[in-house]
Amino acid sequence: MPPSLRILAVAGLCALLGACTLFKFPGVHRIEVQQGNIITQEMVDQLKPGMTRRQVRFVLGTPLLEDTFNPNRWDYINRVRDPDGEETQKRFTVYFNGDILIATSGDWQPAGWP
After folding, report:
1. CATH code of 57's domain
2. Does the reported pTM lie above 0.90?
């Protein structure tokens, strides 16, 4: 087999394998995929101004992102992809001044905060 024909055959095989993702086969079970931190309003309501980093980590868990350039900010991100392929994302950020919680932002807001 000449080298050019071999390259063409490999390229055609790769194209056929890549095309398999275009079709949705009937009867195939698709699951909900959840990535990131699970945050609930109840967890956020436990936060109080003046809490330490350790207390916040106990309530919310380890943050998904700890910015090395801004160590006073923790980001909690939650992505869910349903079986139909639609993706939703929620985000919650806590801000510290040194070791003390001073503010939050995102899709949830703690009850009783200004």
Report:
1. 3.30.1450
2. no
